[in-house]
Design a protein that fits this description.
Its EC number is 3.2.1.21. By secondary structure, the chain is α/β, with parallel strands linked by helices. Helix content is about 40%, strand content about 15%.
Length: about 475
């Protein structure tokens, strides 16, 4: 494999993509829809969490978000105007199945039927994510993801949505970033439901693996055989601070907790032995029942990978100590069970508004890793993007040259991976538009489209026009062309 530090193409060079490459953008339900009390929808864990004082920046919530529920036709027209070929969105579980069990509410499904129809009429390929972190609150009250029953409820929900939309939607994703659901939701508590129990986070991870397998089977039973089922993992690129054996062991520990805990069961039908050993002081993993790992290992048609920044870690020593800096929000509780002897460091280089280092070599390394470890499995970048402090100028235009440079560099890394044998089929920009950024409220803007939250007016940023040109031509325009 070539040295990853030299794989990113020069900024001004022409970078071309295969004709069938899918150019899309992504969002999630709670971050954009609003209308939280319409059409029979009931609270999700994010409704409860965001309404709990002190949990989000400024006490902000997704009650209105960017009002996509009422403005979806305008948003689809905007995507069509930009020239996007695909749109990845998530379904709100509590909009479709308010209690997390029982029959679907048809008015809830009707919203997604209308959205899919609008996309298809505009030549945009829909991709449905079933779960992007918004568990119905009733299921959390019954124990949430640490309880096995939640996985079975997810399979029922998957079947309902597959039946309703499977005739028109070919691309499906069971879970988005289950690591965040398990370890930020139940470990560090910086995401909903805000619990801080390391054993519960490991139980949640296992039941999310089980839910993926059960959900994939439920989808296939409900849909035409031509449809594709995938999962989106925020697999980390974990780098040791040095080649010292202690730092290498620390990197392995985090790699197990970030990656192996999910791709082990999903791709290989087994947890890494090193993960089981490292967490043995916390749990004996007796919640893993016979047949669970075979179920979690349901065949995949593709693998979605979400990438933002690499992780740089070391062991705690007399010479190296200090607070965590793992980029997952401030908390006295760790999202890394059994890894209290590992430190996270800020990688050198330019940073986004999230404080995340801009490093496209990590995206190349990630794609090549899964090319080696899951040969023959098509790959999609299902999220990649950056938050910057975007503001309109005096004429109301929004110029975001930092994001244009970010996208050029990362898409160049994708093309380099294609050149070196990675079967990458598409790229979904995160995000289509500014939205509710979870515990950060509305202060972090990831969108290619600027949203004035007071008026809900949408204004494409220069990055949106740049990306649209890339989507139409299959060639990356120069950074300078964005103005």
């Amino acid at each position: 494999m070539p040295d990853s530090s030299s794989t990113v193409s020069p900024v001004a060079s022409e970078v071309t993509f295969p004709p069938a490459f899918l150019w899309g953008a992504a969002t999630s339900a709670y971050q954009i829809e609003g209308a939280v009390r319409e059409g029979g929808r009931t609270p999700s864990i994010w409704d409860t969490f965001s309404h709990t004082p002190g949990k989000t920046a400024g006490g902000e919530t997704g009650d209105v978000a960017v009002d996509h529920y009422h403005r979806y036709r305008d948003d689809v027209a905007l995507m069509a105007d930009l020239g996007l070929g695909a749109y990845r969105f998530s379904v709100s579980w509590s909009r479709v199945q308010p209690t997390g069990r029982g029959p679907a509410v048809q008015v809830g499904l009707d919203f997604y039927r209308r959205l899919v129809d609008e996309l298809l009429e505009n030549g945009i390929k829909p991709a449905v994510t079933l779960y992007h972190w918004d568990l119905p609150q009733e299921l959390e009250d019954a124990g949430g993801w640490p309880e096995r029953e939640t996985a079975h409820r997810f399979a029922e929900y998957a079947h309902l949505v597959g039946e309703a939309l499977g005739d028109r939607v070919e691309n499906w994703i069971t879970l988005n970033e289950p690591w965040c659901s398990a370890f930020l939701g139940y470990g560090s508590g910086v995401h909903a439901p805000g619990r801080t129990d390391p054993v519960a986070s490991l139980r949640a991870a296992h039941h999310l693996n089980l839910a993926h397998g059960l959900g994939a089977s439920a989808l296939r039973a409900a849909m035409p055989a031509r449809n594709q089922v995938a999962v989106s993992l925020n697999s980390a690129v974990v780098r040791p601070l040095s080649q010292d054996p202690a730092d290498l062991a620390a990197a392995r520990r985090i790699d197990d907790l970030a990656n192996g805990v999910f791709h082990g069961p999903m791709l290989r039908g087994a947890y890494p032995e090193s993960l089981l050993t490292a967490t043995a002081p916390l749990t004996d993993w007796s919640f893993v029942q016979d047949g669970d790992l075979a179920t979690s290992n349901a065949p995949l048609d593709a693998l979605g990978l979400n990438y933002y920044t690499p992780a740089l870690v070391s062991a705690v020593t007399d010479k190296v100590s200090g607070p965590r800096a793992d980029g997952h929000g401030a908390s006295e509780h760790s999202p890394w069970p059994g890894a209290d002897d590992v430190l996270f460091h800020q990688s050198p280089g330019e940073r986004t508004e999230m404080g995340w280092t801009v490093d496209p070599t990590g995206l190349y390394d990630l794609l090549m890793r899964y090319t080696r470890e899951a040969p023959g499995l098509p790959l999609y970048i299902t999220e990649n993007g950056a938050a910057y402090d975007d503001k309109p100028d005096a004429d109301g235009r929004v110029h975001d040259p930092e994001r244009v440079a970010y996208l050029h560099a990362h898409l160049s890394a994708v093309r380099d991976a294609l050149r070196d044998g990675a079967d990458v089929r598409g790229y979904y920009l995160w995000s289509l538009m500014d939205n509710f950024e979870w515990s950060y409220g509305y202060e972090k803007r990831f969108g290619a489209v600027y949203v004035d939250y007071a008026t809900q007016e949408r204004t494409p940023k220069s990055s949106a026009r740049w990306y649209g040109e890339a989507a139409r031509t299959g060639t990356l325009p120069s950074v300078e062309s964005a103005g």
